[in-house]
Write a structure and sequence with these properties.
The complex is a heterodimer. Chain A is an alpha/beta fold. Chain A is globular, with a radius of gyration of 24 Å. In chain A, 46% of the residues are buried. By secondary structure, chain B is mainly beta. Chain B is built from 1 helix and 28 strands. Chain B has a 4-stranded antiparallel beta sheet with strand order 3-2-1-28, with no helix packed on it. A 4-stranded antiparallel beta sheet of chain B has the order 4-5-6-7, with no helix packed on it. Chain B has a 4-stranded antiparallel beta sheet with strand order 8-9-10-11, with no helix packed on it. Chain B starts with 7 loop residues before the first helix and ends with a strand. The relative contact order of chain B is 0.13. Classes of the chains: A alpha/beta, B mainly beta. At the A-B interface, β2, β3, α3, α9 and α10 of A face β11 and β15 of B. β3 of chain A pairs parallel with β11 of chain B.
Amino acid sequence: MNRAKQSGCPLSLRRLRELIAMVLTFAFTSYALFAGHTIARAAPAEKGTDVISIPIVYVKEQRKRLPPLSLLDYPPDNEGIAGAELAIDDNNTTGRFLKQDFSVEMISSPKRDELIEGVVAKAKAGVGFFVVDVSAETLLALSDALKDLPAVLFNAGAPDQNLRESECRTNVKHTAASYAMLTDSLAQYLAWKQWRKIVLVSGPQPEDKLYAKSLKRSLKRFGLKLLAEKQFEYQPGSHRTDGGYEQVQKQIPTFTQGLPEYDVLLVADEAHQFGDYFAYRTWNARPVAGTHGLYATTWHPASELWGASQFQNRFNRKAGRHMKPLDYAAWMAVRSIGEAATRTGSGDPKTLIEYMLSDNFELAAFKGQKLTYRPWNAQLRQPIFMATPKLHVTVSPQPGFLHRITVLDTLGIDQPETECTAFN
Amino acid sequence: MKAVCQNALTCLFVSFALITATLPAHAFKAFVSNEKDNTISVIDTKSMKVIHTIKVGQRPRGILLAKDDTWLLICTSDDNRIEVYDAKTYEFIKNLPSGPDPELFALHPSGNPLYIANEDDNIVTVVNIDTGRIIAEVPVGVEPEGMGVSPDGRYVVNTSETTNMAHFIDTKTNETVANILVDNRPRVAQFTSDGKQLWVSAEIGGTVTIIDADKKVPIHKISFEIPGINADAIQPVGIRINKAGTKAFVALGPANRIAVIDAKTFKVEKYILVGQRVWNLAFTPDEKLILTTNGTSNDVTVVDVKKKRAFKSITVGRYPWGIVIANH
């Protein structure tokens, strides 16, 4: 269920109800008897001295980012860590029955050296698990710094393909989807729709280029035709003026006027600087997809598929906002650690890391099937939503795209084509 | 009929023979909760037709009978309550408190109280169905789901979907006495009629764990393999075991099949193709038929238990979820 949809202020209503429940419970317990029964709320299992502690560190690199086009796209302060904290709660609910105690703390800095220093110190003090939201370069530096320590990094924030391919590392797992997984999801759906004639508009930022490169690979892979490609130039930040739509309304039609007859216009704007300008403004009345319009995402805040309603509610209550893909990736990382600890009954990083790579490991993450790590590059396999901001449209892999091991491997670089050799 | 109906007696005989050849001898009423329609479809198991539709609260899921099958209880999850209807007249009787987001529940064998899994609150709420009062709240794992009760009424077992455990709750103290780890996303907990075993399905794990109810330890795990069906699509949910304890039926979700299991050897004997995303199932009281709820195909499949064959599908409301069959 989703209370948020039903009432104007779900959180305050909920709090109010909880408050009333608390007062009532107190009143009931005070006055004790009701038809011969005592009101009782059993206490959680008590922690003994033999509780296993499993500390986790969340690492956030404070990066300078261009202000996004839409006010709605400013990242919340607790993005990512909020997902990790929810997973800690979930782990500890199980942990209290198994005498395992999970905790998370955050290291955050704009300086790579400081992050490395902090992480290495924690690893030397026995922390085995780091959930990281850092750039690809910082991730590789952290991986190198931890090389000889029994510790593993969970990449929750970087979709860069090289981290899974030429630069793959045995001490890095990826709960974030790769660019290839995201763009393959989109291309599969376009192929299913038989929208085969594509034009691409890409931005100037390095991440735009990585996304566009991945898109082109996916288009080719699923038999779509790229008819034309255009670069979109802009002055970063210049959109923050009072007004502006009058010019944009004229600018986008003329920008798209000369394009060949197409089915879908794809935009590659990872920096959120212009992608939202395209829908409803193109010369031809055709849909927009890519980073904007219909987009691929590992998580959607409105998904109630596969029993996700309660999961969304738990997060909304705890974080005071909707769940974002980074929160979800951090949640999956911490839940992976929890799942391994539950199944092995251990808190030893080495034991848990080995278990996560074994055939026995499986994660339930509200995607309708078990999720596992690809043994050749430690990328978490997962179904991916194709969505608009309000609701999902479909979930890839699409019907008919088959695979001899798992259809999830139709998304992203597959084992026979991988350049990653570190796990061999 | 005209050609063979020479006189009234043969006519009667032929009609009788036709009826007995294709239909069960007894008529029962099956109640199916339609999650997306906010209705209950009432099926007559003799005519195999929907004979009535009850409008109920929002998102009906768990469904059971109380008071010698005269009360129909429904978890209306989005209304945060249990609704009680007369199972014969279909008239609304009353609401019971349930705690938030009730999904599944179980009735004590003595007829009272009711144990309700609150999926959004990590608790099991215990309610007296006569007085409508909450007796206790028992903390369990994350996303409580399945509820099973031992035939002697001593234990209630709750499964928690994200904690992946079966929690044994002592019905005398309303405290958890054992927490048994099972595979990922446990859904339904079902005791055998002799109370010696507890069967727990794990939807994402794709298995059914059999637990020794006395020792409270897992003794066996059943996995499933269907040629041509991806292992990821085999997602066990509903479990029914016959009274004799010889056969078990397990609904396998998006595999669109139910498994027939020898309950003594734990071997899968057959997979029966039913509707799409089959989640729950129920025997008729004479155990001759088993009816399944098929969520995405909006229908109920009727299976002949002896022949292990599906022979009829009945269209119900949208996203049929739970099913219970009354002895009248």
